[in-house]
């Protein structure tokens, strides 16, 4: 089971301007073959189907699977921030409030969704479970996951070079740093099984000196840390400790629990999208519901 | 963000016998168009893309999305229990340990996965994000979700009639009861927006008197309860309270937090599947890792 | 069986200008998940697989399935009108008659088809039968269809706001009105099974006073009418009668037969597309065929 | 536009026995790459996108497109007949009414649909619009269609050899004969453009003397006839007349209108499938609806 | 088995300018439904699954399948040439080296691949094996292949009209000519089985006088030649000889072996794409590998 | 470009019996996500899109890509051998020659193909180009390819345990050995870039002492050899030499050219499949073609 915390893993600053093109590029990080929906589902399946006694490796998978759920939320919310303001309600008789959609790379942002994120990649292809890899073999799964994180990081570094929109850059940079941490988690797991990586990794080889947003996050050692994302005990720290497997001088930190988060943005109504689509009468009904006295029957039981 | 709890929402009793056919049928509940991966993703997207001020409805979506993550785990683990023992390592020179695969409805359970669950439906089709519906419109989303839960329940009732394997029945019955609770959540949400359902719902119309596993769960009022699946405050109870919207005499209960769970089963090594695939040398390495003293650097920080 | 009538359900005025972007947007109404190919196929399957004695509901499905076939034709022809003139045969030695294709959102309109419509959505995804829903359960099918029509109407209202091209607007407006009628058909069917909708529907809540094309069609009560689309008797009128289920004061009308239609446009040859591609010799052959005396053997038999 | 006639193109005799395997094989004729959904959609698109003045060829496409709509109905209903009786409501406490599903090649017939047909092929793959071919080029379209009909006929001949279930055979045989007629239509159209086929066609080369069901239909010249499937005039007979293009001595007949049909079977309620799923209360409501006096407001208008 | 030759079938001149739009259009020729990956795979499967004694037709399929492998290489390399230079490494602090990606029709060229070709069509849809046709029936396979080549040529003629980029035109023109040769191969094969084509073919009907690149290739009779693409004997020449089946005066030539080729272009490192991504240290390692003395153990054995 | 050699890489012994289930299992090796079509296409794309100066690695990719083309042929032909004899022409009036299809796991072997292989996996899913991975990054591509070969080998080892049919085992064993060689090629390539594998690889850890077919092939050192598959020079031997990267004592051999092959089986006509489908008249025509004197115009030119 899982429990939800009403926070994002990283703060999303306001977007410089409505930016449907950046929003569409960022979809790769959400619904792409190497995006967050995929890492989340792949690690979840490897965790659920885990066999044998090396349970510390199962704990490791569970921790990262849980973290990726929050990444899905982070990317989705960033896309929404980039789309916000791209259209607005009509103020003049002959306005075309959604004409922006015809010049946007993903018309579905405006036509199928209510000006918000979709479970597709940057070319519009829907996410598919054929992406999910679980062979049941521990070495092979770790090898695949290492490659997956490295590819994810490669793509985020390319995304970084495509736009300098602040909201976009904040999230892309956060993922560059976290993907590096995950690359280290899986590389370290393989190191415990005998592999030495020498200087072959990480991918990509990156000079972060020209990437201020990335540098700032690395200055907090975020690229060497891994939370357990649980209140319970975890074998993660048995594997993820000591020196970075890439010989970059990093000191690995396994940390119990969940990192400090940031608020989830609120999207306003978009009448031109009929979202939420409540008219006066319906709005009044929802307000009555929300301002009613807390019902007596609720909240009595609680898991101990 | 999310946090993981090392429990399943319901206990899975041992399977009567290895049962690849029941396992394959149950895949519909995992990777089917109306299965748990879909409900989880649909409610997650509707929650992330939520617009407007009716935040109690957003809280409601978040609670159920989080519950569905645990349902994904429950179904996956049940499939694994049904597959366990279907093959075993060779003991004689000319054994064919995996010959069962040629007579199983989903050979991928044995050939692609290591005798375990897959993100596909009961006909073998991979899960697709084209299933995820989010129009941005509150009434429409609630209407779709109601239909989705009713269809899910319909399919689980059909699954119930296909096999009486104990492990299978326990999970199918649990989902029949929880889908009914979710049907009520969305029907109630629409009731707050003015709809009266009278006797049209629920779907399916079901006499549970011949379904002892279902009756037992209903005797605990599980079909009228909804947890918030968070330690934080939630508007769920503003909506989900009072009488059942189906006129069946049920009293709705919104409950803070997470229900009591059951242990997650452990799958043993399956050498004939090369899963986990660790030989003596590698096994020794993983044991060293796991029995090492807890590393000093870890666990220092913790979210407050 | 079905019989064809050489008319479209509504007139398509000439397009203001060749408009590949509007054409691509309108593809959602043809091959989209909530477009006309889908409604047609969904109702056709629900009709063919119908079980039980409530045959009036089966008749209702058959009527709308048949109407949707004409909607497929209407949308396809409108897309073709919007594409017409977007390219033209070369007149100068170094012309690039199809260079427009490189700047169009769906290059396949020019490269795969002969400057004409395709069975895909506005993002270029091919239509898939995974969209078709038929649970066999009457209440559930009606609930799904209601949601389907409301979503279709929502998308058409968004399309309306994207462009004011006359040909485009005429068809989009017609579909907004007909989708509302169909929303009422399914809402009414559920009303006969006990549901009261109060003010929750329709979706979207729409003030048509700023939409002159829509208002004109509503002035003919087109949003409260449903034809049977057959010369035979039908139970449709047993269900679809009385007051609108949305409390908007509409009086529902079930009408025998088929509405008055409008001519189907003729597309000229497009030599730059090699469509029809007949050269002088072949053209002469087809003319001979078409001007030959009506062959004696034909037309003798006819169904009585 | 289209109009519906409440008949199937050919009679379906009762199935010898419930036969889910034959039902699944026959799905290829419904949702397969060369099945009836595909021919219907391909000819419809070629008709809607038709360019140029050779309108007799457009009429030809429209006629066959319309006929294929009825074939879709015929195959769907035959699948339903083959499935009927495969399961039945529980009569004993521990019955498993749907256990048959676990031994059927397409569990979705029982789990997703209510024991009825699905828009998929015989291997369970959903129908896809990527199958639809329309190049805009007349010669090429005719060539493709000829190949399509020949492939359809080839597959139906293979289906004939798989089972001798009477309901199955009746429909398969009808399609073998009609596919041959369609092969002739497109071969003839190419003949008018200059091609001579000599003895290369038809495909497959078939001795029907051992196929009594086929012979009976051929004795009525059904393999040389083509109806216009419209009450209006059509250029079909300009092309489809004279001798068979395959040198088999056939005399081609174009016929105005629609052939005599056969009744559409009625499927009873299947309570074990929750289809139609009406309980006593809901059944009473639908009966009230159906036995109400014909409402006065209906049926007043009618297309002249 | 196959053997590789380090040459392309035709020379690719330098691209006039970086041209992502032309690159994307040309993807249809690589990963499109009628592109080179498809012809290659279709003929390969028809060859592998060939039945019966008409082995000359099997040889014919093998020859063209092998040629198509080289076409895949030609189109991929041309796309790469068109993309080359579209981005370049950052030289200023605030450069966005990959910003071009946001304005390109296929962002995946820059985001998923390292500024290079992808196995997708011009609309971004991935290639699918559902395209591959092999009925096992000789006449039908030949008929389909004829249609396939004619459609491929039609699409290339449309591509020709979209851009006059020199690199693009060189490859498109080469394919127009080779597709015509292949059209003749399959038309000739059907001629040996009795068909006369008269003036119905080829498709498209094309006046090449305005297409200098095409004319130049035809002046070398490239549209009437077919190589065997093997050093072994082949029955190809038994079928492909004599006059062109299209009555255009061409004299067919079957030629043993493989045509003279052209060099394969070298793509430089693209650091902004992290491709090849070798840093100084890794580059040194690869140079050591490549300049090492040829290892003694190699090259000893060789197939005779 | 490529040249074809009329041989398979390994001999296929006769199948013990017609074996559609083994045939279907083996489809995973042809059209599966980790099968031969995928390795062939992945390495081909990585070769065509290669960037930078480390050309020895590009040569390595080209060699293995070319070898995989032969593996595609080997697996396809083995499937055909397993299917051969599964049905036979009717000899009695009421025979059902293809009834076997209804009990076979892939009915398409008999219904869509002419009793032969298909480009699908063992669950019937068509091969998709979404499988093809090319990041442009050398380290990452090598890492992925290593994982790909190890997964392929894992699946073949599972296939080995499913059936002991001789034809099946011969091909499965050959692929187990060649996949190991390829695993070594990519592991070695990463070793040149600094990685040490120690005992983590290969996957799976396998005791071949109980696998006589595998042992026999290994006794010829086939698991340590790699041919260049070209007559031209290649940098392969610069990388693939010295000791096995897995510390198993193997001595790596790069060999110029192509290995000795085995004959390609001939499939006879299958009249019940209408394959090849030639009747007496058409057969005579093909015989005339094949016995005609070698035409004079052919074979004059040849590549030097």
Structure characterization notes:
Six copies of one chain form a homohexamer. With 304 residues, chain A is mainly alpha-helical. In chain A, 43% of the residues lie in helices and 4% in strands. Chain A is built from nine helices and four strands. Chain A has helices at 20-31, 36-48, 55-83, 108-111, 138-160, 166-192, 212-218, 236-239, 280-291, and strands at residues 2-4, 225-227, 242-243, 251-255. In chain A, strands 2-4-3 form a three-stranded mixed β-sheet, with helices on one face. In chain A, helix 1 (20-31) packs antiparallel against helix 3, helix 1 (20-31) runs antiparallel to helix 5 (138-160) and helix 2 packs antiparallel against helix 3. Chain A is globular, with a radius of gyration of 21 Å. The mean pLDDT of chain A is 95. Chains in contact: A-B, A-C, A-E, A-F, B-C, B-D, B-F, C-D, C-E, D-E, D-F, E-F. The interface between A and B is large, with 111 and 110 residues. Strand 1 of chain C pairs antiparallel with strand 1 of chain D.
């Amino acid at each position: 089971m899982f429990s939800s915390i009403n926070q994002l893993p990283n703060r999303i600053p306001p977007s410089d301007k409505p930016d449907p093109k950046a929003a569409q590029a960022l979809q790769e990080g959400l619904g792409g073959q190497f995006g967050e929906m995929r890492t989340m589902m792949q690690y979840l399946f490897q965790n659920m189907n885990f066999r044998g006694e090396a349970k510390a490796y199962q704990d490791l998978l569970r921790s990262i699977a849980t973290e990726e759920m929050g990444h899905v939320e982070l990317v989705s919310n960033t896309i929404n921030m980039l789309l916000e303001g791209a259209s607005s309600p009509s103020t003049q008789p002959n306005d075309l409030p959604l004409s922006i959609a015809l010049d946007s790379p993903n018309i579905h942002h405006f036509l199928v969704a209510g000006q918000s994120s979709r479970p597709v990649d940057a070319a519009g292809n829907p996410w598919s479970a054929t992406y999910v890899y679980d062979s049941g073999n521990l070495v092979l799964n770790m090898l695949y996951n290492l490659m997956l994180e490295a590819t994810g990081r490669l793509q985020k570094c390319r995304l970084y070079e495509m736009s300098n929109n602040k909201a976009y850059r904040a999230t892309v940079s956060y993922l560059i740093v976290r993907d590096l941490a995950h690359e280290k988690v899986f590389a370290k797991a393989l190191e415990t099984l005998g592999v030495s990586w020498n200087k072959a990794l990480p991918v990509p080889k990156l000079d972060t000196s020209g990437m201020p947003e990335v540098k700032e996050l690395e200055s907090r050692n975020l690229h060497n840390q891994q939370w357990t994302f649980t209140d319970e005990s975890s074998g993660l720290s048995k594997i993820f400790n000591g020196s970075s497997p890439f010989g970059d001088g990093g000191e690995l930190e396994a940390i119990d629990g969940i990192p400090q988060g940031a608020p989830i943005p609120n999207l306003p109504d978009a009448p031109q999208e009929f979202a939420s689509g409540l008219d006066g009468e319906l709005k009044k009904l929802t307000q009555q519901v929300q301002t009613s006295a807390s019902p007596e029957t609720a909240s009595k039981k609680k898991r101990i």
